[in-house]
Amino acid sequence: MDMKLWQDKAKILIESLPYIQQFRGKIIVIKYGGSAMLDKNLKKSLMRDIALLQSIGFKPIIVHGGGKEIDKWLQIVGIQREFKNGLRVTNLETMEIVEMVLNKINKELVGLLGSFGVRSVGLSGKDGNMLQVKPKDKENLGYVGSIIKVDSTLIKSVLLSDCIPIICPIGINDRYEDYNINADDAAQALAEELQAEKLVFLSDIEGVYEDYYDKDSLISELSISKANELIEQGKISGGMIPKLHSCIKAITNGVSRVHIIDGRIQHCLLLEFLTNRGIGTAILQDKF
Questions:
Q1: Strand pairing of 178-180 and 170-172?
Q2: pLDDT-based confidence at residue 288 (cuts at 50, 70, 90)
Q3: Claim: this prediction has a pTM higher than 0.85
Q4: Which residue stretches of the chain are H helix?
């Protein structure tokens, strides 16, 4: 028996103790998307880690997208995909596919968590009028919604029953029509409404870089003012811009900490939540 190996494992457990104590009973919103959804092993590993977090007292909420799977099914049924300003143009036919695919993914995740001994409830933003929307740009985008109100009554009931809510980003307008919602926007709005302790965006990059082409320039902690500065200087580009805007808005509206981490890394959530160093980029309120 290698005693040092076992002692090192014990040290890791001890290192996690203050974080378990700090976040026990706290709400953690996890936006799940990107490559972590496509790799079966990563998906299974991530759900196991979320099951562990829930078992030690965290209150995780999963908000998931499904863009790649939606694209696959659109191709199968012969519907052309179209994007404008990074958002999926969603007519009625496309909306049917979006809802079908997101609900399919939703129940798969419920099953995976169940296999790890954790109860979860799959919901869409339509359930309990959770995500109420108005059209973002009906003329150009069709049934793409902008969230105007979040009703968290149902989510709170699920949390009280010691279950994990798993939410797909479909909302309704005042005429009870279905709308597709950007998953980042849905996660941000829910985190704000619930005053979550943490909001985590699982991404396909390591985090935010001072210089994207210099992989040694990863920023581990980023203040709101510094984030705005990087955007204004043009150092942030592409899909990271709206993601950072979501981070800034969430922090401004009461979420304690927001993280952008690489969902392709095995056990990324455990490394971020339960170790001294963490991974990725944490966006924080300015210190005065």
A1: antiparallel
A2: low
A3: yes
A4: 3-23, 40-55, 67-77, 92-115, 138-141, 153-160, 183-194, 224-232, 240-252, 268-274
